[in-house]
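Run folding on both entries below.
>entry_1
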Amino acid sequence: MLGGNGTVGGLTLESGGNAAPGNFGTLTVNGGVTFQPGSTYQVEVNAAGGSDRIAATGPAGTAMINGGFVGVLAQGGAYFAADARHLQACAIHDNKNSAYAEPDSRGTSPRMTD
């Protein structure tokens, strides 16, 4: 598990790997980010629009999604449609059908969707 705020070099999450930026923070990656099948990106969100984020920077600042899951840890409150950026990169490539966990109608318990 890679967690917390700060800066790392390129990041590849293999099956069983987990990335979780800390406490509505940003994990900056100086290079590319790759999510392999079976990996998890864990994102905290709140009703005020706050969220964790991975920011891929530099010339190789791309994100490759080869599979994996996004787990949403939603705090209580009323959620409305908003533009939240959980992954920032120069380019994002989705090569597989990845699953995304969305909060339920109460915004508390994620459920898996395709």
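>entry_2
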Amino acid sequence: MTAKRRSMLKRYASQMCRHSRCSYRLPVSDGSGRDRATLRSALTLLSQAGYDLDGTVLRQRTTKARLTFEILVTTQIQERDRAGIYARSEARRH
């Protein structure tokens, strides 16, 4: 992370988990979008963080609150891309 970005985010540091301040690398998968090994690994990490799968919903183990997160993008094109991915995934669920 650049010094400029760190400076911009400093006032939000108490609200950010420590991992969000690190660089991110996409996981390596088989490219199918249904890579069971990658899904298993993700669920293991989420379980270690206190979340369990309840049907099709990830819930915090003690409070039963649903897992929520935000994806930050820098351009409108990225925003439209993410919105399209979300809409398609929701359509598959119903």
